[in-house]
Amino acid sequence: MRKLSFIASFVALLAGGSVLLAQKAPTNEKAPETYHVNFDLSTGPVVIEVTRSLAPIGADRFYNLVKAKYFDGARFFRVIPNFMAQFGLAADPKMSQAWDVNIQDDPVKTTNARGTLTFAATGAPNSRSEQLFINFADNKFLDGQRFAPFGKVISGMENVDKIYSGDRENPDQGRATAEGNAYLLKTFPKLDYIKTARIAP
């Protein structure tokens, strides 16, 4: 496992990552049948409602990621206008490595409509882990490719629409995974990000 330098560790901690949290094994607590997540983005607040029955495996993984404060400081590293905004590479690369454990696919029960939240995947079966995206548009074509939405933005979609898209797909996901925010902050400083993500009481 790649070791962080002191500077990279400090940057990751400032951005919301935690080396201590990263060293813990991923949890697999069952999520409530419906829950809300309050995102405080650099563009403003967003509330996502999750319905577990739509994709229970994905809903459970997302619930555990949020409870672990995994997304704090995470950048929107792949943002394509009129398509989607992708996130899920942790500020601290040790956190990304710890949670890079694939989960099984869920059947697609609802369409990838504007504002829905879906796990990203490589295209291979059962390749979801910790990356997700919010659909900017109605992307029905994704429904037949095993992308199973399990949540939707119920407040703050205007702040999702503000997410910076100027770098599009330019950030290198390999480096972002290995180096976290130490790479993204230096090379792509305009990326919007998640300040905090918390399960609503």
Total strands: the figure is 8
Could you spell the SSE succession in H and E letters?
Answer: HHEEHEEHEEEHHHE
Tell me, rounded to a whole number, the average pLDDT. Answer: 91
Supply the number of structural domains.
1
Structural commentary:
By secondary structure, the chain is of the alpha+beta class. It has a single domain, classed as Beta Barrel (Cyclophilin), CATH 2.40.100. It is 25% helix and 21% strand. It has an 8-stranded antiparallel beta sheet with strand order 3-4-6-5-7-2-1-8. Helix 4 packs across helix 6. The longest helix is centred in the first third of the chain and has 12 residues. It is globular, with a radius of gyration of 15 Å. The N and C termini lie far apart (36 Å).
In a nutshell, what does this entry contain?
The protein has 201 residues and is an alpha+beta fold. It contains seven helices and eight strands; from the N terminus they run ααββαββαβββαααβ.
List keywords for this structure.
Cyclophilin; alpha+beta; 8 strands; globular; single chain; 201 residues; disordered N terminus; 25% helix
